[in-house]
Write a structure and sequence with these properties.
Aspartate Aminotransferase, domain 1; seven-stranded mixed sheet; 10 helices; alpha/beta; Aspartate Aminotransferase, domain 2; 359 residues
């Protein structure tokens, strides 16, 4: 199997797995202890969580705190529900975790359009009464990088808070500037599934979404998993140390892919995007058939969260693509563990299968 679906999830880094194992110990070792217990094993588990918190915090700007959550979806829900702001403006290509949550809590949500390149215009008009603006750092379907800093400056000048979904950018790009709240997910940066984080700017208070024991500074009740936290922390630390080499590797793969997929049309900007994302289309392509015939290659038709809906991608439609064009698109994602030979082999298979369809 050749894995080319890095936007859906990334492979677990061996270093992250190794960091988790001591906290998955059985009854003969203290690693199973509850980190909220006052005894010595509990304090050791709590200390491991704080080490991980500092490692994850290094992905964010200074002047904030990290709240562990079950993932980015919970982090985004906590941010939107907990901040108490209800006049929202969000980009039209946000993840459903933002769009659906905004529509649930906001009496009216303004969608900020994108151009044909898949990017929001930094000068896009903002509603005069807006009090929360949500703009993602990197789009999960097409990889386009959004002008977070410019929009954040304008939003904050109007007195609005700024929320950034940095799931696809964390560990790959510099932290988004100007945001008041930033959500990330461990399994998109080579960590384990089941854990994410919300970064809060200093001085910002939220109402809790989950009530109970008052863990995580009263913002997120529930027993934390030392294993998941340790894996997340190790993955974040690895991203920090491998930042440059990861980016150089992805750039080499991107350059290679330009030749390998020359018969396809790229959806979204070629320059203003994370180059580990290829969203491609061929007019008339039957993507369902392609997926069936290329079952030894893991790639995607749209986002993993919406792949079974049968609906055209709201992201591709926001670019101005027709339903037919959107449904003839695929997403290929690569990263740290993708080899050049794998990409060469996958491209040969995908191109042959597409050509067999006569497109």
């Amino acid at each position: 199997m050749i894995y080319l679906d890095y936007q859906a999830t990334t492979p677990l880094a061996p270093e992250a797995r190794a960091a988790m194992l001591p906290w998955l110990a059985g009854p003969d070792a203290p690693g199973f202890a509850n980190p909220h217990s006052p005894h010595r094993p509990g304090r050791a588990a709590a200390a491991a969580i704080e080490v991980a918190r500092a490692q994850v915090a290094a992905l964010f700007p200074p002047g904030g705190r990290v709240i562990f959550t079950s993932g980015a979806t919970e982090a985004l829900n906590l941010a939107i529900a907990g901040c108490g702001r209800r006049r929202l403006a969000v980009s039209a290509i946000e993840h459903a975790a933002v769009l659906d949550t905004a529509r649930h809590y906001g009496p009216g949500v303004t969608l900020l359009p994108v151009g044909g390149d898949g990017r929001v215009d930094p000068g896009v008009p903002l509603p005069g009464d807006v009090d929360l603006v949500a703009i993602m750092q990197v789009n999960n379907e097409i990889g386009t990088i959004q002008p977070v800093a410019e929009l954040a400056a304008r939003a904050r000048a109007q007195g609005a808070l700024v929320l950034c979904d940095a799931v696809q950018g964390a560990g790959k790009l510099a932290a988004p500037e100007g945001a008041d709240m930033i959500a990330v997910s461990a399994h998109k940066l080579y960590g384990p599934k089941g854990i994410g984080a919300l970064w809060l700017r200093e001085g910002l208070s939220l109402a809790p979404l989950v009530h109970g024991g008052g863990q995580e500074g009263g913002l997120r009740s529930g027993t934390l998993s030392p294993a998941l936290c340790a894996g997340f922390g190790a993955a974040a630390a690895l991203c920090t140390s491998l930042w440059k080499s990861d980016a150089e590797h992805v750039e080499r793969l991107w350059t290679l892919a330009q030749d390998l997929f020359s018969g396809w049309t790229l959806n979204g900007s070629a320059d203003g995007r994370w180059h580990g994302n290829l969203n491609l289309r061929r007019d008339g392509l039957d993507v369902g058939r392609l997926l069936s015939e290329c079952r030894n290659i893991a790639f995607s038709a749209g986002s993993a969260c919406a792949s079974g809906s049968g609906r055209p991608s709201h992201v591709l439609r926001a670019l101005g693509l027709s339903d037919r064009e959107a449904k003839s698109s695929i997403r290929i994602g690569f990263g740290r563990y993708t080899g050049e030979e794998e990409l060469l082999e996958a491209a040969a298979v995908l191109n042959a299968a597409a050509q067999a369809q006569g497109v």
